[in-house]
Amino acid sequence: MSVVLLEKKDEGIPVQIPVQQSRLDRFKKGFKRTWPLHVLILPAFILTILFHYVPMLGLVIAFQDYKPWLGFFKSEWVGLTHFRNLFMFEDSVNVIWNTLIISVLKISFGVSVPVVFALLLNEVRNIGLKRSIQTLVYLPHFLSWVILGGILIDVLSINGGLVNRVITSLFGIDPIFFLGTGNWFRTTLVVSDIWKEFGFSAIVYLAAIAGINPSLYEAAEVDGATRWKQILHITIPGMLPIIVVVGTLQLGNILNAGFDQVFNLYNPLVYREGDIIDTFVYRNALLEGNFSFATAIGLFKSVISFGMVVYSYRLAYKYANYRVW
Amino acid sequence: MYHKSKGYKVFNVINSICLILLSLLCILPMIHILAVSFSGRGPANANIIGLWPIDFTFESYEKTLNSPNFIRSLWVAVYRTVLGTAIGMALIIAAGYALSKEYSYFKGRSVYIWVFVFTMMFNGGLVPTYLLISNLHLINTIWALVLPGAVGVFNMILIMNFFKAIPRELEEAAYLDGAGLFKTLWKVYLPVSMPAIATIGLFTLVWHWNSWFDGLIYMTDSKKYPLATYLQTIVVQQDFSKISLDPKDLENLSQRSVKAAQIFITAFPILIVYPFLQKYFVGGIVMGAVKE
Asked: What ipTM was predicted for this assembly?
């Protein structure tokens, strides 16, 4: 054990191991040795407690009728009223459905498109071409939705945006109001999200493909397997564990329909089909001042997401032996 | 042998062409916006620009860089990015190093890890966090942008895994030479892992530069908006209610080419660091996903 070397050897003391050390003694001895490690963690630990755990205490306002001037202690307790309202108000029910629909679409295409892309890219033999393609498709991932939102609003504009100019001249149809009609808005959300992320998401699959033992292909070749058969029976099974991991871990995002994206693209015209939980919480809390109701929705979302994350990690561990650390 | 068959060759050509078109599709919108930003006012507002500027001019960039609001936000963004990255990296390197020690040596390890990882899975949400920041009187200060997100748990785990992979022999040699834990971090671990740390530093940099929502909710004074928030409210949403603009600025902002120039300037730093990022991130991500 290499770690033992780190311990200071007791010099000159005859071998006389105490029969039983008390827990406290052992703790003290350990602490004497490792205190620098605690010191190194301390700043990060304090900030985490302050900015991540203290707000969890603030979740009590989900059960109150919180008024800023009354504070946490004097605001009236209302129990589960806000949670009941959550399922009664037409707006909030609608928002939950929107979130589910948008995120399920994003997750299913967000996993399948990168897989297909990785498989196709793997067939490109020219290394220079492969690298150039990768450079271009990874780029949008690094630009924020503010920048891309600004670009998309311009490009998708109904008044002579680039996309509408292309489709009207190619197909001779009327310009499409991408960001102003509900169903087109959802489509735009899903397509633009895939457009931004598919390249970057493909990285793990490309890594998985690169990790497949080449002798498998050689053996298949000898047996006369076509390339298609090789992909079907070697490449895809080789990628399967990581596909399972990514797919299950995405379950934790089932209520994350992408706040940044929706917030930067939506407008009152598409609230009916495009408003999601996070944007609804934002408007309720910071624009209308319904702190308690907004917190209740946020808590509802956090709890469901937490359950899904824990469940998905267990699944990923069970089926693909994946661990976070 | 399969690549010699005629069918595969045909497939390969078609496949390559499709992928080239697909990859061009990823940057065409950026090229279009660049073309608009260099175009004259008339052609830009008339929506006739494709992928090449018409009436080439630097006018939009001149106007943008002469706008005091834009420049002020640019400086706020630089300030928060530098400060946030420096503080964030110091925090996660220190903590990641301590957590990279084995459990048998450092008993508190797993408790700490759980405390950190739990924040990735559950959080107080928008309102309680906002109330905390406001009760701490951090509204309108740079700390509201720097401190809440300073401990990037995912990056911390990446650093921890990287440190774990460093051979023990190095550490033991340092120990035998009389170096304590601090000195070992400083003189052994840091120099050895410079590429990994630089990569994670760049990611943190990009994250800070791109962050806009914290600026929107924690800065009530629009003079303190970082550039991304400025772009979001003024350029994208065209919400002028929070900012006092002189009429000339207002006129400029209604110009399509000026908007395009502001979008491009905001994206520019990312485009600059992108080649460096790309060099490392594949390794970094695989490191995080597959590990050991």
From this structure: 0.88
